[in-house]
Amino acid sequence: MLLRLTSSDMLNTSLVDVITGKTMYTIVTSIVDIQDTPESLPGAASPFGIISPSLVLTDRLETTSVHLPSSRPSSPSTRVSPTPEKLQLNDAPPTLSSIQVRKTEIQASDSGTLLADIRWNGRRPDIMLMNQHVGPLTALFDITTVQLLPNTLAIPSRFDTEFVWNATAHSLTLIDLDSDQTKGTFHQNVFRVSSSSNSAAGKFIHTRIPGVGHNYIEFESHPLVEDVEIIVSFFMMEILRRGRFALTPYMFERPKLWQIIEAKDLIMRRLSSRRNTV
């Protein structure tokens, strides 16, 4: 399946099937008035509760340590089981008065059925998929074993331990370790060239410039999971990828400003790299 994002803001967009031209999913993120939602208060048992005490999406992944201690040599095949302490913030959680609460809803465009509901307490997600309350981000992936590779963040999926999310500074893919095949890719800032309008196959030309080109999610459906879970996982991994590699963090608002900041950061990184090579 190849889906094109109609907006540069991945949490406020529609996903269009490239083959049929049909809008498959509608994604909307909005601010929640917590004074009008009693279930959002701390300690509430609602499956849509906003407090997620485990993994937190931050602008830098240092709060979610997946690095080996400096005293131990890293190895491409090294696997570690992160402790709960490493997956939590060191400081106290923010109070409700100091955070912005939002909700992200993903609906099937044809029927209007709610497929996913994500409540954000600041940058802490609480995830609902179909009729299942997944909970915090740690529950969306298999974090019991984390694979450490050079310049790579690799996290197994929860629906198939052989399917691993593979993030680098320049890419985000879903890999099947059994077949060593790519089962999913997040194409960003690209132009697609295809010889046939009836085929998802085509060549992607990367512009490397934020806001120039289009964004696509390409993946194969898995028999053990709904497509919407793969889509949500793509978005969560993209936010984590940006934190892990010190890229411009995702912004909930003003996507145009986000693109300008990202372009500026990209230029500064390239200039810094050139200075270091001179």
From TrEMBL:
Superkingdom, natural source: Eukaryota
Low complexity bias: start-end ranges: 69-84
Annotated region described as Disordered, given as residue ranges: 65-92
Protein name, UniProt field: Uncharacterized protein
Organism for this UniProt entry: Dendrothele bispora (strain CBS 962.96)
